[in-house]
Amino acid sequence: MYKKQLTKEQALQKLKHYCSYQERCHHEVKQKLYDLGVSKRDHDEIISTLIEEGYLNEERFAIAFAGGRWRMKQWGRVKIKYELKQRQVSEYSIKKALKQISEEEYLRVLKELADEKYGSLKGEHYLARKKKTMDYLLQRGFEMELVKGVIN
Questions:
Q1: What is the spatial distance between Cα 92 and Cα 101, in angstroms, rounded to a whole number?
Q2: Which of 20, 54, 122, 129 has the fewest CB atoms nearer than 10 Å to its CB?
Q3: pLDDT (average), residues 120-145
Q4: Vertex 82 angle, CA 151 and 113, to 5°
Q5: Is the dihedral of CA 114, 120, 126, 127 positive or negative?
Q6: How far is Cα 81 from Cα 66, in angstroms, rounded to an integer?
Q7: Sorting pLDDT into bands at 50, 70 and 90, what band is 3?
Q8: How far apart are CA 101 and CA 106, in angstroms?
Q9: What whole-number distance in Å separates Cα of residue 25 and Cα of residue 35?
Q10: Three-state SS sequence of the chain
């Protein structure tokens, strides 16, 4: 299929809209540039323009992503960190984003999820209930030490 080549200005306008709609990471913007068929020599210039004008900010993206996944999906720090690494976000931005999650609330939610899951496994042997609850919490991205502490 033949794609129409966009000019640098057209691509920049499309990406400004793309980035203003929702926070984006650099990786997503690069992928969008490829999808739009923009020539590779223009990529760096377009991305730097988006950064200069405040449309693209990796740190802001990481904080929004981590906060959203924590509040809406109640993911643990391990899973959030993994997802941010998949999106090629810098280690500095990941650490800054994870610091935004309050420790007290994190432990409270972990305990609530553990109690809820353990309570839902009523007909099973207590060791099986503990194992399934532990697996569930680890799959949600909580740290092994914290999970062991809550389960025991």
A1: 15
A2: 122
A3: 93
A4: 25
A5: negative
A6: 8
A7: low
A8: 7
A9: 16
A10: CCCCCCCHHHHHHHHHHHHHHCCCCHHHHHHHHHHHCCCHHHHHHHHHHHHHCCCCCHHHHHHHHHHHHHHHHCCCHHHHHHHHHHCCCCHHHHHHHHHCCCHHHHHHHHHHHHHHHHHHCCCCCHHHHHHHHHHHHHHCCCCHHHHHHHHC
In the chain, domain spans: 8-56, 59-99, 103-151
pLDDT at 42: 86
Class of domain 8-56: mainly alpha
Assign 1 a pLDDT band (cuts: 50, 70, 90).
Answer: very low
**The token pair that represents 87 in the structure block:** 């999106």
Please report, as a single letter, which amino acid is at residue 133. T
* Residue 14 buriedness (CB in 10 A; 0-12 / 13-18 / 19+): middle
Please give the single-letter amino acid code of residue 121.
L
72 HSE (CA, 13 A, CB side): 7
- What's residue 4's pLDDT? 66
